[in-house]
Amino acid sequence: MKLKSWLPALFLMSLPLASLLAQPVLPLYTGNIPNSIPSSAQEQSTTDANGSVHVSNVVQPSLTVYVPPAGTANGTSIIVCPGGGYGFLSMTNEGTEIAQRFTGMGITVFILKYRLPNDALQPDKSIAPLMDAQQALRLVREVAPKYNLNPERIGLMGFSAGGHLAATAGTQFARPVGPKPGPASVRPAFLMLIYPVISFSDSLANGGSRTNLLGQNPAAAQLVQYSADRQVTAQTPPTFLVHAQDDNGVKVQNSLAFYEACVHHGVPAEMHLFAKGGHGFGLHNATTTDDWSERLREWLAANGWLTR
């Protein structure tokens, strides 16, 4: 049996029963969902041979809440954006497994099921994911008292295209999208970008992500707007990056470009590169014994985000 085929199942078998039960789900919006077209479309969920869940055609965006074991919460929270090329959401290896790992650090985790760009469901598909990420930040701030969270310690984590979404939200918080965004801040306290799509330039772009978000013939201004390395400023949150050199899905130069932009603007950034690992490895880079999530735990601790 191949290593990758049994890792997810083994991971889930090792979890306590309580952690496998249904988690609270918070709808992102009350009433009508902004930037949406009424439709009879239904969300679709599939499970592959390895037990990994993929969700597509998201109509009702939401946050699924994972709380730390009793007595261990430290007030920090993260919103997790699964990847999938803006065509689906990889909800297991870039969602539930991540939640299990980080609740073990005392962090409250919110998995974001965001709308995927779709001309049939949104008047402007290019802003739908970002609108949902920004609303997720508002909602976590709103429910912070209920979950004993520090509203100034909300991080945003993204994988692959979810990393593009997190990087976009982390660099464009000064310009909230959508109608009547309100006064609540949509700036995350820190970013964690795992093999992220960053640039939409011809030389670096993941073609599927760019086409799904912006269409076949995006304007030059859109390519700049949605290239997160071009949007970094001194106000960009501290950032942690992970990538593999042999990633054939999203070139490692995406992370390098974002890191270089952070250095240029004086933004604290830490980057961990693997020689091998490919794309989409989630927590489990089978080519190395080095655990990037442990490196991330050390980074979080060094910055005070694991202190109660």
Automatic annotation (TrEMBL):
Q: Does the keyword Hydrolase apply?
A: yes
Kindly state which keywords UniProt assigns to this record, in alphabetical order: Hydrolase, Signal
**Record's signal peptide:** 1-22
Residues annotated as domain BD-FAE-like? 63-260
Q: Name one GO molecular function term.
A: hydrolase activity
Name one matching Pfam family.
BD-FAE
SUPFAM superfamilies noted in UniProt: alpha/beta-Hydrolases
Task: State the protein's name.
Answer: Alpha/beta hydrolase
Organism in which the protein naturally occurs: Hymenobacter nivis
